[in-house]
Design brief:
The chain is mainly alpha-helical and about 140 residues long. The chain has one domain. About 75% of the residues lie in helices and about 0% in strands. It is built from six helices and no strands. The protein is elongated and about 65 Å long.
Length: about 140
């Protein structure tokens, strides 16, 4: 008989590894490509949809869309497994009924909450660092 936390304990394979970290790294890999510059592969989403002369805002918007798209697909399946604490075929059978709703919610949260907060934090961080840099130069 399986206990309540079997799936959660199986998901955490060590102190530095979790399913969430693995899914985030996988999503980032397929959205933007590997972190190293030596590996050049053509199956990533963003390089296929952007061109060299595209504006910064167009590339960021596409990056948000790719991230939300893959995140909603992965979490529609894995989130159901974690929430039910068992791995079944239910999320795969009901995928096309649940995924559009999850995509819309993820996109709304990303556009209305996550991105504005992240941009405000990064703006404050850059302003703080610029002020420190100017103070160090003037002294």
């Amino acid at each position: 008989m399986r206990d309540r936390y079997t799936l959660i304990s199986q998901a955490n394979l060590g102190k530095n590894f979790s399913v969430g970290k693995f899914l985030t790294k996988t999503k980032n890999f397929y959205c933007a490509g590997p972190a190293t510059k030596e590996v050049k592969m053509d199956f990533y989403m963003k390089p296929r949809l952007t061109q060299k002369g595209d504006s910064f805002h167009a590339v960021i918007t596409l990056n948000i869309m790719c991230t939300v798209f893959l995140m909603s697909i992965i979490l529609t399946i894995v989130g159901t497994w974690v929430g039910n604490r068992e791995i079944t075929m239910e999320p795969l059978v009901n995928f096309f009924y649940k995924w559009p709703r999850n995509f819309a919610i993820s996109l709304a949260i990303e556009i209305l909450i996550a991105q504005p907060i992240a941009r405000r934090v990064m703006l404050g961080l850059h302003m703080y660092r610029d002020a420190r840099w100017e103070a160090a130069i003037s002294n």
